[in-house]
């Protein structure tokens, strides 16, 4: 702060509470300076002011960004970063009315451009995640207003869902399930649950580097199963191809977090329910990828129920492979990744076979 006073960017006025919004505005005016060092000094000064008067500075930042709609995004990022830091530093003091103002601003900043402008949109998303650590309901309500029927959600909508999941753990799952009952949220809920499940798997795979090494797979199991029931027994039957594919993609990683006894119980319904989708050739790649993940999860828990599904599974898979004669003749076609998943499915199927039957098939 003193460096900015010395350089003349900030006037040498007293830091009374009545002068802080004016000082904040002066600082934000200076974000157009081309010197990166000045940018960092402005960021630090805004954080300092926010520590003095949380509500006043957050409102000043919100008003400035709203009134300076044409301000270039690199300058907006400085202000959004400062807002995130101020919120994180004084979250317990943030009142609900100010939180709502900040949430609305950050949501609009994040989705204002349909193009991906990573630095800008990530900064806005980070503000939402920071506020969401205390006001998760309010953040979710605002984010849901950005979903439109039949329109692919903005990349950072899904990204924010995933980050909120990591920040709030199981708290977000009941909210996600509530969101799943909203018609215009159908497009995003499977994607959000897929991101959540993949994020948790990644987290559990790197517990030695995780901030909370006490997290376990069963921490999320019951909530994931509730979401699974909505997706598998409801939405997988949809006539809307995009929704159906999103559900298929989500179910694969979700099975890795289901309670072991529930996964074992569901396999006689789950595997046939996925295999039947092979009837739609355009969906075969997604079906194979999901099926591979489901079988991997089943093998990981030592499933015995899987044995009863092998005939159905191998017959369906044989029909798929026999219909792909071109894959056996080099060079491989450009979409050979789907064939790779068939091989993985065979691999996990073989793992579940009793040794005598496995030996007979390999001869």
UniProtKB/TrEMBL annotation:
Pfam families, alphabetized: HEAT_Maestro_2 (PF23210), HEAT_MROH2B_1st (PF23221)
Repeat is among the record's keywords: yes
InterPro entries found in the cross-reference section: ARM-type_fold (IPR016024), HEAT_MROH2B-like (IPR055408), Maestro_heat-like_prot (IPR045206), MROH2B-like_N_HEAT (IPR056282)
Chain ranges of the MROH2B-like N-terminal HEAT-repeats domain: 47-255
Residue span, MROH2B-like HEAT-repeats domain: 258-323
Domain of life, per lineage: Eukaryota
Protein name: Maestro heat like repeat family member 1
Record has Repeat as a keyword: yes
Keywords of this entry: Repeat
PANTHER family documented for this protein: MAESTRO HEAT-LIKE REPEAT FAMILY MEMBER 1, MAESTRO-RELATED HEAT DOMAIN-CONTAINING
């Amino acid at each position: 702060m003193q460096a900015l006073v010395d350089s003349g960017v900030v006037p040498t006025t007293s830091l009374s509470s009545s002068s802080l919004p004016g000082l904040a505005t002066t600082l934000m005016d200076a974000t157009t300076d081309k010197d990166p060092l000045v940018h960092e000094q402005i960021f630090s000064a805004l954080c300092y002011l926010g520590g003095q008067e949380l509500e006043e500075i957050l409102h000043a930042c919100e008003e400035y960004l709203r009134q300076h709609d044409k301000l270039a995004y690199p300058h907006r990022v400085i202000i959004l970063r400062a807002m995130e830091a101020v919120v994180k530093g004084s979250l317990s003091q943030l009142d609900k009315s100010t939180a709502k103002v900040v949430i609305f601003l950050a949501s609009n900043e994040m989705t204002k451009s349909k193009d991906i402008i990573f630095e800008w949109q990530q900064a806005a998303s980070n503000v939402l995640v920071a506020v969401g650590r205390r006001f998760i309901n309010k953040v979710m309500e605002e984010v849901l207003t950005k979903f439109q029927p039949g329109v692919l959600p903005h990349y950072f909508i899904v990204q924010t869902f995933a980050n909120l999941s990591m920040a709030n753990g199981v708290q977000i799952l009941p909210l996600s399930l509530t969101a799943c009952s909203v018609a215009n949220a159908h497009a995003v809920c499977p994607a959000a649950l897929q991101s959540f499940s993949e994020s948790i798997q990644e987290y559990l795979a790197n517990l030695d580097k995780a901030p909370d090494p006490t997290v376990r797979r069963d921490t999320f199991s019951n909530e994931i199963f509730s979401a699974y029931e909505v997706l598998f027994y409801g939405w997988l039957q949809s006539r809307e191809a995009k929704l159906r594919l999103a559900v298929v993609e989500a179910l694969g990683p979700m099975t890795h977090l289901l309670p072991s006894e529930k996964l074992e119980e569901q396999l006689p319904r789950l595997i046939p329910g996925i295999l039947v989708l092979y009837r739609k050739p355009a969906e075969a790649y997604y079906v194979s990828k999901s099926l591979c993940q489901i079988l991997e999860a089943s093998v990981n828990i030592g499933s015995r129920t899987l044995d009863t599904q092998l005939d159905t599974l191998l017959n369906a898979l044989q029909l798929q492979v026999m219909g792909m004669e071109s894959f056996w003749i080099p060079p491989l076609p450009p979409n050979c990744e789907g064939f790779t998943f068939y091989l993985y499915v065979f691999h996990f199927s073989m793992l579940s076979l009793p040794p005598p039957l496995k030996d007979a098939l390999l001869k």
